[in-house]
Structure formats: structure tokens, C-alpha cells
Write a structure and sequence with these properties.
The structure is a homodimer of 408-residue chains. With 408 residues, chain A is α/β, with parallel strands linked by helices. Chain A folds into two domains: 26-283, Type I PLP-dependent aspartate aminotransferase-like (Major domain) (Aspartate Aminotransferase, domain 2); 288-404, Aspartate Aminotransferase, domain 1, CATH 3.90.1150.10. Chain A has 14 helices and 13 strands. Chain A has helices at residues 26-31, 42-58, 73-84, 98-109, 127-137, 160-166, 186-189, 215-222, 251-258, 270-286, 288-308, 335-346, 373-389, 398-404; strands spanning 15-16, 65-69, 90-95, 113-118, 141-145, 147-148, 153-154, 170-174, 193-195, 209-213, 324-328, 348-349, 361-365. Chain A is globular. The model of chain A has no long low-confidence stretch (mean pLDDT 96). Chains A and B meet through α1, α2, α3, α4 and α10 of A and α1, α2, α3, α4 and α10 of B.
């Protein structure tokens, strides 16, 4: 860190095998070097429409309202919740890890009347548990995380949207960590609003949050619509419900901006739009099912390698995310010392953990551009060496051999 | 617009001479093609610290708390207001154009008790008018726009921060349209919180909002601090005042993230950080005063050229922004037809207008990378041809000659 300041940007080449951000696909990075367009230039709005069409495929949905929120994945979550939750609205939140807690933290600030379905970090809820909680609390909104990287568990969502509709509940799911890596079957799930990010399985940089909204949720959000005074004209009418508490996260206004009306809201983050568009192109060229299979293959091999080193995997096999794996730090091993060796000797990053799991598990990602054979093998080899250097009795060579055997 | 979808990104090369976004400096575009780093990698936090140091210079401040909000310029405005305004707080807003209206729109949603100092679009307030309004309303917060592109006027801010402190008022100014093009003398003005954007005079893409915060405002914001449950530990204490209504825009949490504590909040938008850093490097290499002079020179020449075509400039000469110029659309000329000719025949974009000025003025930017002789001359030449084609009796060649004569 002793170089003189303000030289050209020149980050060291890291292999990012943590829970995200991961290395961006080089095509995505190159796409960002295209120059700006005016925000209402027909070429720009063409790219906006194209991006909507691409993300409908990525989200496996017919939802008309599928677009980008300009900010990191967390901005997508807050836009969804701010638009769905009116002050005082009874809101049920499933919390099984850090990001479930984030949902209730955001909802609290929005003035929601919160009920929680809390499970220990590392567990997932059954549809029966969710139905029980809905029957008990009769919420207006249900919110949950699909893949909570803090625990590496994926919450099954099949049937949950349908369940919510049966009780007239608007539903939200965050798929930041799974979009483009595990199936996000928006229409099949029937979840009303789903938002994600680019920096995990999509293979892009953080800073743009793709979102998709059902017609039913869009109707509700539009009933909270309120056009800005500075651009108001007689043809625009406000909705009857309580105005959304944020201007930036007002999805009604953002929909007006992405619609044929092109009502000015923010200035679309052009470079991030280019990145999001290119990331989706790459995902769809590979094919969603191929991509899901590639992630499964990579994490299966990673787990085989870790187990061959007698390391214990965290959580339940049945609900494991296929793109990030938690493993217990062995007794008497300094987790941070191992991570530092990985980074400094091998240029590889693996993840630490939060909350009750901090200092107890590592998290290794196999995401997007990095969910490939050679990166899994390099990571296992490096981890073996780092563990050995820290005094863990590792059977040399076993991890790479076990992982390698998982590929045909 | 008939090309098959999902080809490589390939926007046509436009010369963006509107009120922003403008063409990004190629060095900024290239910086974004650097790959990701983990968010707590020492190399990443080094770049974050460097970026803070660079923006202190750009904002002409010693403020420790000088960093980026991840979103477009509007995100910076909302973060500032959400963090400064408690529900019910008496808030005085100076409104002389669209973006003043935006401030009150955002503040309303935050539950502020709003008082306004309203002036017709195109005027600016005197210090006496501001002091009168402060004495009358005794607000907790005063908010204004430095350069409101909707009117092309710059609000003088010398002495305003000191005035606000005398009455114990927290002050905010938006400098999205002026940062890097006109003097933004944070410490001299004494304004507590100032936020900007990249896509105008900074010569970067939209999507990152630099912000600077005085110690006094930071103390206030930290008194509203509330650490997220998912990352809470015994060493973190909450403040005594009302929690900030937004998680994403909670500047107390964002300061914790940019501080040595590195408490996780969002995942920093890496590529946009690289862009913001490079944009600041370019600004500082040129030198702030050189850069301000270049903008003044460009707009002076532009105005000379426009007047040589007998076009009438909008607003008051004394308070004109030096980076965007409004001009009245001549009678019987279709403003949109001229803009379309400019774009389609010459690849040049000039701006339309909002609200009471919609359809009445055009706005021509001379911003950042585009505030240079040849771009001003090309724009004037193209405008002359477009006006002539639309039937306006333009003295041929006069505009370019008049502008050219403005450079030594």
C-alpha cells in the first residue's frame, strides 16, 4: 500500500471465490467502456427496452415490468419494500440469516407492522410453516430471501407465491445471490416482486439491481403513484393510496420512466445499464439450464474436495445454494490467517461470515464466471496449502483429486 | 431501430451538448474495465480512501467525511436529506426551478414540515432574502440547489453556510450540475452537506454521487445512527435521535462502511468507484481553476455565437451557470424539429426543458469533456444549419465566427 497516490487504476488480479462480488466477465467490463447516450435518445431507450426483454428471460417471467433499479442489490430490496409496504402495513418476514434481518430492518424503517418467522441461521422454512404464519398473522406483505449467502442456504419458493395469493398477500423475494446461478422461476413461483444484483452469479459489477414486478403488484404500486411537481402535466393523475416514502425508490415513478411515457425520474446509470445488458446476454447465450447445471457441478466438486480434506460442510445438504458453500473452520485453526495466506500467497479470496457464524465458518463461492473447473481446483489446492501451513493435518493432494473426479 | 436484438453494445457516437449526461472522458470509460476486488480487500479499501482524498480536493474541503453514495445524483440528494431531516423537522427549501421542487418533493416524503422560498424560474435569491426566510421560519434545515439546470441559473452560496450556522440551521446544497465545472467552495461556503454527480462537468457516467459532510452535520447524523441487527456487536452503540427512515440512504451506516471500522452496508459499486476516482484524477490534473476558466470560456463563446444568430439568451447574465445555457426558441420555430435535425443530421444532442419552460427554451451544455472549442463551434454550425432548414432567418456563418473570436 505504499505506492504514490493517484496512479492509473490497476487492481491486482484476484480470483474472487467468496460470496460476492466475484470477477466480472470480461465482456461485461468491456461493455462499460461504450460512451454515453442522452437519456431520451431513441438509441438509449432502445437499449432500455432490450434490457427489459433480456431480464424477462433471466427472471423466467412474462412480467411487463422488468427493469433496473440504479443502485446496488440493496437498493432493489429497498425499492421493492418501500413500494409494497404502506406505513402500518402488517408485514411478515422470514428470517433465517443476515439478509432476512436486513428485510425487517428496512421494513421497520418504512413503518411496517412487522411479524417474523424466525428460524436458526442455516435452516429453511417449509410451505406449511409459512402458511401457518400467514394464517396466524394475516399480513398484507410477505418478504423473504431466496439464497441467503450468510448461511449458504436456499429457501424453496415453489408454491409460495400461490399460497400468498390465496391469502391476498403481496409477496417479495430477494434473489441477489441466486439470479443467473440457480433457478429463479418468477412466474412458476408466482412471487409478486423479485429483485437481484449483478455481482454474484450474473458475472457483473455491483451497482445495478434488476427487478421484476407482477401486474397485480404493479397495480398496487401505481395506486401509490405521485408525479413530481417539476414535471407534472394535466395528463398525469395521482393514485389514491399513501404516497411511497422515498422518491428515489418510488417504483411507480421508475415504471413511468421505463414506460413509453418516459417521464423523467433519475438519469439512468448508462454504464451500469450496458453492464446489466451484457451480463444478461452472456447468461442467455449459455442458456439458463446449462448455467444452473454448471453451478451445481462446480459446487458439488468443491464440496467433494473439501470433504476429502476432512472439512465439515455447514448446513443442510437438501437446501444448499449451489453457488456458495459454507464450511466450519477447524478447531485450533485461525480462520483469518488462512484467508490471508489464500489472498497473499495465491491471490484467491474466500469469504468470512457474519453474526452468529462470524469466525466459525468460511464461505466459498462458485459463482458466475468463476463457477468453472480450473477455478475450483486452484482454490482447493491453495486452501490445502494454506491449511497445512497453519498446522491442519490435511491429506495432501486429496482435495484436488476428489474434485477432479466430479467432472466427466 | 430495426437491428436484431442482443448484439454487442454499440451506441452511435453522439456529441452530447445538452444539460447532461454528456460524453464521458475516455479515461473514465477505460477505468471501468478494470476487474473487481473483494469489498474488504486492502487494495479495495486503499482505493476507497484514495477516492475520499481526491473528492476532498474536488469539493475544496477538509471534511473527513467525503465519499460516494451508490446511485445517481438523485440518490446523493435523498441520502443527504433523509439523514438531515427528522420527521416533523422544519425545513426551508429554496425553489427557483425543477430541482428545487425535487428537494421539497423528497423532503415531503421524509415527513418534513416544509417552508419554501419560491422565486420564478430563472431567478436566484439574495442572501438577504434567505436570511429573511430563515428569521421568519426558524428552520432546522435549509436546502437549495447550486446550479439548477432546469433554469441554467447558479445560486450564489458565498456566506450562506455562515448565515445558516448563525441561526443553528443545518445546510444542504446540491451541486450535481456544477461540480468540476464551476467553483464548489465547500469550506468557504460553510455549507454542511453537499452532494453531486459524475455525468455533468465531472466527465463521468451517471450512477455515483460524491458527497461531503461537515463534522457538525456528521455529529448530527451519527446521533441518528442505528447498526443493522445482522452485523451488530457489543462495541457498536446506537444514537439517541430518531433513526434515519431509509437503510440504503443512512449516511451514518455509510460512514461506518467508509471508515476504518468497515462495517458492512451495501457492496460498494466497484466499477462506478473506479469511474469516480478516475474522473477526479482528470479534474485535479487539469487543475480546478483552469477547469472553471475553460467552462467560462466555452459558454462565453457559445453565447456570443447564439447572439450572433439573433437568438435570445434565457435568464440573467449575472447568475448564469457557465456550463449550460438556456435560449428562447424563436417564434414559429418547432423546437423539437430542430433538435431532431441536430441529432439525426449532425449527431449532436441539445436539451429540451421542463415545467413552465417546456417547449419554450433549449438548453445547451458546455460541460466537462465537451467544454472545448471545437465542440462549441461544431454545435453552433449545426444549430445554424438546423435553424435555417426550419425557416429561421439566420445570418450564415456569423455564429461560428463570433464564437471563434472569443478564444485568444
Amino acid at each position: 500500500m505504499s505506492r504514490p497516490p493517484f496512479l492509473q487504476i490497476d487492481p491486482p488480479q484476484r480470483l474472487l471465490m467468496g460470496p460476492g462480488p466475484i470477477n466480472a466477465h470480461p465482456r461485461v467490463l468491456r461493455a462499460m467502456s461504450a460512451d454515453m447516450l442522452g437519456q431520451f435518445d431513441p438509441e438509449m431507450t432502445f437499449y432500455m427496452n432490450e434490457t427489459m426483454a433480456l431480464y424477462r428471460q433471466v427472471f423466467m417471467t412474462e412480467n411487463r415490468w422488468t427493469f433496473l433499479v440504479d443502485g446496488t442489490a440493496r437498493a432493489g430490496i429497498e425499492a421493492a419494500l418501500a413500494s409494497l409496504i404502506e406505513p402500518g402495513a402488517l408485514t411478515l418476514i422470514l428470517r433465517t440469516g443476515r439478509f432476512g434481518l436486513l428485510l425487517s430492518e428496512i421494513a421497520e424503517r418504512l413503518g411496517a407492522d412487522i411479524r417474523v418467522l424466525d428460524l436458526p441461521w442455516g435452516e429453511t422454512a417449509t410451505p406449511d410453516q409459512i402458511e401457518e404464519a400467514i394464517k396466524q398473522h394475516r399480513p398484507r406483505v410477505f418478504a423473504c430471501i431466496h439464497g441467503d449467502t450468510s448461511t449458504t442456504m436456499a429457501q424453496p419458493l415453489d408454491g409460495i407465491g400461490e399460497l400468498c395469493r390465496r391469502y391476498d398477500v403481496l409477496s417479495y423475494a430477494d434473489v441477489t445471490a441466486t439470479l443467473g446461478g440457480m433457478p429463479v422461476r418468477t412466474d412458476q413461483w408466482g412471487i409478486d416482486v423479485i429483485s437481484g444484483g449483478l455481482q454474484k452469479c450474473m458475472g457483473g459489477p455491483p451497482g445495478s439491481a434488476p427487478i421484476t414486478i407482477s401486474d397485480r403488484a404493479a397495480d398496487f404500486i401505481m395506486s401509490r403513484r405521485h408525479v413530481e411537481a417539476g414535471i407534472r402535466s394535466s395528463s398525469q393523475t395521482d393514485g389514491s393510496r399513501i404516497r411511497i416514502a422515498s422518491n428515489y425508490f418510488d417504483l411507480a415513478m421508475i415504471m413511468d420512466y421505463w414506460s413509453e411515457k418516459r417521464l423523467n425520474h433519475h438519469t439512468e446509470a448508462t454504464s451500469m445499464l450496458y453492464a446489466a445488458r451484457e451480463a444478461a446476454c452472456i447468461v442467455l447465450e449459455e442458456g439458463l439450464e446449462n448455467r444452473f447445471a454448471r453451478h451445481t457441478q462446480a459446487s458439488t466438486a468443491l464440496i467433494a474436495g473439501l470433504r476429502a480434506m476432512n472439512l465439515e460442510i455447514f448446513g443442510q445438504d437438501a437446501h444448499r445454494m449451489t453457488n456458495v458453500t459454507g464450511l466450519w473452520i477447524p478447531e485450533n485453526i485461525n480462520g483469518e490467517a488462512v484467508r490471508t495466506r489464500m489472498r497473499e500467497d495465491f491471490g484467491i479470496e474466500i469469504g468470512t461470515a457474519f453474526g452468529p457464524l462470524a469466525g466459525r465458518i468460511w464461505r466459498i463461492g462458485t459463482m458466475g464466471y468463476n463457477a468453472v473447473k480450473h477455478k475450483v481446483l486452484l482454490t482447493l489446492g491453495a486452501l490445502e496449502a494454506a491449511l497445512a501451513a497453519e498446522g491442519y493435518p490435511v491429506p495432501r493432494g486429496a482435495a484436488v483429486d476428489a474434485a477432479l473426479a466430479c467432472w466427466p
